[in-house]
Structure formats: C-alpha cells, structure tokens
Amino acid sequence: MDMFAVNAFLIVLLSIIAFVALRVHRLFALVMLSGAFSLTAAAQFVVLDAVDVAFTEAAVGAGISTVLALATLTLLPREEKPHAIAPLPAIMAIATGMLLMLAVGDLPQFGDAEAPVHQHVAPDYIYGSEKKIGVPNIVTSVLASYRGYDTLGETVVIFTAAIAVLLILAGWTRTPRRRHDEDGEDDAG
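-> structure tokens emitted (189 positions)
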C-alpha cells in the first residue's frame, strides 16, 4: 500500500475522531474517543518513523491518560452539561490550524536526501558522536547526550502519570467526608 494512502487514511481517521469527540456529550464516550485518538496518533508516528514518540504517545496518551480519565469519571456526573462554543478559542484554533497547514508547504519532502537535516545534523551524529560523547553506540549517545533533557522529560512525564494512577487506585482522590454527630450537624458547628 502506498505511504501517502496510509498517511491520508490516518489523518482522515484522526479528523473523524476529533469531530465526533466534539459532538458527544457522554463523558465515557469522550474518554474512549480520546484514547482512540491517541492510539491513532501513535500509529501515525510509527508510519512517520518516529517510533520513540509513538511509544510515548501510546503509553501516556492512550494508556495512562485513559486510565486516569476513567478513574476521574467515578467522581463526575455521567453527562457533560450543555454549553455554547466560545467563539474566540474556536477562531484561534482554526487560525492556528491554517497557519500550520501553510507552514507544511515549506517542509522538505519526506525522505529527501538533500534535506538540511541529512546534510548537517545526521552526519554530525553519525561521524562525531563517538568522538564527542565517548559512546560507540549512536542511538545511546543521541538519547543520553544530545536529547538528554528530552528523554529526562519523557521519563518524568511517565513516572508522574504512573504515580497519579497509583494514587487514584489507592483512593487518595476521595474528599474526606464530614463526620456527623447525633443531631445531624457538622462537627464544625
């Protein structure tokens, strides 16, 4: 199958999921659509050869975030309260989307060997990483040194999400209930 067709299919699927998520009022359905959106985005990242980003999106976006949202639903009503769409954020979102579409025209073609990243950045990683970093494995040197803060940030996000899930599952999110005396009044008076 042609890569353009796969990319087009995934982008159309993402658009459909986003549109349906905007129209749904049941919070459980919204959480499931959010997880489906993240999983589809992870598939898009795999197609674009960004497997590390895809793994993070699948683990955090489709996995942990969905579990957190489902746990949060136990504290909320079943349906969202009806509300009107605020015009200013909608206009800003549409304008940002249009600017991003305009910027895509300036990007080099996918896989173009003459792209700046292949002329300047990649050769420096391939030929200079062992000399500069002292690690013979290119992937390890890139992740541990060049992208060290990025990798640390991803690790912190996953660790924080894991702690939040454990706290929710342990019941730490429940608000303490007030004690009532025999007269039915609060202890506070």
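The CA atoms of residues 99 and 105 lie 10 Å apart.
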